[in-house]
């Protein structure tokens, strides 16, 4: 196995791949005269911005339609359904932050294209076994990093007051919705996404898998704010995350409950219903 990380020929593979993604999004949505003259970095940012916005609205509207209209009063009681005003405010906050959110993956792709990270282009470079090992390490690193970043955004009072409080005005079922998933102060959103970026410098990461995980991130943030408890252990589902929004000191985890379980900040939805306090 020999990965010529420093060679321009190897790095060109990343540029070709990001250019392909740029073309798929931009060529199908915008006239070529609008985006083709732009530098590659700006094309990548524009692609991330447009794709991120589409993903946000698509996942938010589809999930809201499913739980608030198609299956109205099945998953949530009528008084737990957020108002249109609340959802519009969440959309407003998310859209103000979206240009800044999408700057982080754009910078990451630029660093990948220039050989500054441990990203690799093809699974064959390491083989499937090591690919899966590195993927597991990546996910553990992200879980650990987001847990502590999220917890510190609560524990460090200025960070909470000036950044994270923007998200926590949605603190009960009838104000939470899938659109709240990206309703953050832009710096807050970037800080919580930072472990995804830092992992690229530490753990060999398959580039296309990294892109796919960022896509999953967009869907996941909508899902955990819908207040529906899926009960799929050890997943940190919406039942757990709703408790986080109501108690402010439990369930800081991201994809799983493991970090909260290990560090004593876990609170089960069943405990919340019974009135048990940790």
Q: What's the short story on this structure?
A:
This protein has helices spanning 8-29, 32-35, 40-70, 84-101, 103-113, 128-155, 157-162, 186-202, 207-223, 238-247, 258-263, 269-274, and strands at 119-120, 205-206. The chain is mainly alpha-helical and 278 residues long. Strands 1-2 form a two-stranded parallel ribbon.
Characterization of this structure:
- There is one protein chain.
- With 278 residues, the protein is mostly helical.
- The protein is 63% helix and 1% strand.
- The protein contains 12 helices and 2 strands.
- It has a two-stranded parallel ribbon with strand order 1-2.
- It is globular and about 60 Å long.
- The chain starts with 7 loop residues before the first helix and ends with a helix.
- The N terminus is likely disordered.
Q: Kindly name the structural category.
A: mainly alpha
Global morphology: globular
As a percent range, the share of helical residues equals: 55-70%
Please report which band the strand proportion falls in: under 5%, 5-15%, 15-25%, 25-35%, 35-45% or over 45%. under 5%
Mean pLDDT: 91
Span between N and C termini? 51 Å
Low-confidence stretches: 1-6
Domain Fatty acid hydroxylase: 136-265
Transmembrane segments: 20-37, 49-68, 128-149
Subcellular location: Membrane
Organism: Linum tenue
